[in-house]
Structures are given as C-alpha cells and as structure tokens.
Amino acid sequence: MRPLGDSPLVRNDKTLVLAHDHGMEHGPKQFSGVEERLDPNQVFEMATHDAVTALAVGKGLTETYYPSYKDDVNLLAKLNGGSDLWMGDPYSPHNWTVDYAAELDVDAIGYTIYPGVNRETDMFEDFRPVQESARDHDLPIALWSYPRGQAVKEHRSKEIIAYAARLGLELGSDFTKVKYPRSKENMRYAVQSAADNRVLLSGGSKSSDREFLELVEDCMDVGVAGLAVGRNVWQRENPYEMLDMLEEVVFEGASADDVL
C-alpha cells in the first residue's frame, strides 16, 4: 500500500468512485429507461460533481472522452473487463496496460479479480505486473474483488466477503471494492480483515433512495472508506440529487434521515 493523503481519490479520508464500466460488463440493457446516458458525456458530466473523487471507465471511454474533462475529472482506469455474453466461470482479460493508461494521464488504476473460479491463479498472476507497474508510475490501485466459482456457495457470506477484502491487502492494492455481506456487523468484520487496506462498498443494483442511503450510512459507520457506485447514481431520474445526498453521508457523516 502507498500513502494516499495527497491522492485526488481521497477527500477527508474518504472516497467516492463513480463507476461507468457497465457498457462493457453488462451491455446497453443497463441503460433501459435512461437511454440518453448511453452517451458517456452525460456520466462524465456527473463526475464533475464535488462528491465524486474518481470516475472509473475503460480504455475506449478514456481515449474518447477524458481529454475534454481532464481538468475536472479524476480518472480511474479500469484495465480489464469482459462482456455479459460469456458463459461459465468469469474471467476478466486485460484490455490495456498501465503504461498506456499513464500516457493518457490517468489518476489511478482499477482491476477485477474473481477469487474461487477455475482461473483464479491466472488472474492473480495477471494482476502482479499490473500492480508492480502501477507502483512504478506512482498510481494508486483499486481492486474489484468478487469471489465466484463452484466452491463459493454464498458469495455474500461473512467469511467470503472478509476473504475478498483481505485479498486486496495481500495482493497489494490500495482500495478493495467488495459486495455488501448482508449485515452491518459482517461488513465491520470485512473492514477489520482488510487491516490498512481501504474497503469500498460496491453500490450494486439500483434500490430506493432510503434503502441505498441507509446501506451507505451503515457501512460508513463501521469504517468503510467509501464506495464505488454506478447504477444507484446514473440510473436515477435525478442523479445529481443523489450525489448531493451521498456527499453529506460519505464526507460529512450525515445520516440517511438527515438528507432525505
């Protein structure tokens, strides 16, 4: 891990990543009802909101849109990803390199692993040069740690999510994004298991304003460093209103009741 006090990804020791890798990972169906947001410019505009400390996108969106927003958006380069059309155990191949991302002047690196699948060892080995190259470029690393596979019977259980969080520390990331393990106390255990690694809550599928904000509040209460959220922001009719509320809950310690 590297010191992150001066990182643009951190404000008041907290982080809010706006994730927009869904076009690659899930396809256009994720934009049903908000088809205008198939235009990445709309989400890049959202990322200029004060609440957002980084925008996570892949190679194509970085090349095409980031030059117009470089002064206003901190970019987290998502280096691997696959489509929703693949069948079988998930595997997330490289789409670009740390060197190329650094050439495009990004602020951080993002990478996905699927612990527990048949190709776990390949993914861990794939991550090694990414992690070391990011260190060479002094770029912080966020690891998406999503256990899957035949041996993982309940991928949101207390022990599985704690293991996912711990793997971020063991593999050398600075942030580790994990799913919610179904209770506040289970998330506390995941944070404890990660030690000095910064755990980020995965925003997940869109839910009601209250349900989502209460979830974020609970996670912040037990020491989560922030969240990486996509659909719970940009699938909303008014994403800026949600970002306003998240800014208060994540960075100012407000409760869901305070902002609703």
Explain this structure:
With 260 residues, the chain is of the alpha/beta class. It has a single domain (15-259), classed as Aldolase class I (TIM Barrel), CATH 3.20.20.70. The chain is built from eleven helices and eight strands. The protein has helices spanning 22-25, 40-46, 59-69, 98-103, 120-136, 158-171, 184-194, 209-221, 231-234, 239-252, 256-259; strands spanning 15-19, 54-57, 75-78, 108-113, 141-145, 175-178, 198-202, 226-229. The chain has an eight-stranded parallel barrel, surrounded by five helices. α3 links the parallel β2 (54-57) and β3 (75-78). α2 (40-46) crosses α3, α6 (158-171) runs parallel beside α7 (184-194) and α8 (209-221) packs parallel to α10 (239-252). It is globular. The N and C termini lie far apart (36 Å). The model has no long low-confidence stretch (mean pLDDT 97).
**Count of spatially separate domains:** 1
CATH superfamily: Aldolase class I
User: How far apart are the termini?
Assistant: 36 Å
Strand order of the largest sheet: 1-2-3-4-5-6-7-8
Helical amount: 40-55%
Output the helix-strand order.
EHHEHEHEHEHEHEHEHHH
Count of alpha and pi helical runs = 11
CATH architecture label = Alpha-Beta Barrel
Q: What is the CATH T-level topology?
A: TIM Barrel
Identify the overall geometry.
globular
Q: Can you tell me the residue ranges where pLDDT is under 50 for at least 5 consecutive residues?
A: none
Q: Sheet bearing the most strands, described? A: 8 strands, parallel, barrel
Supply the CATH class: Alpha Beta
Enzyme class: lyase
Protein name: fructose-bisphosphate aldolase
InterPro entries: Aldolase_TIM (IPR013785), DeoC/FbaB/LacD_aldolase (IPR002915), DeoC/FbaB_aldolase (IPR050456), FbaB-like (IPR041720)
Family: Belongs to the DeoC/FbaB aldolase family.
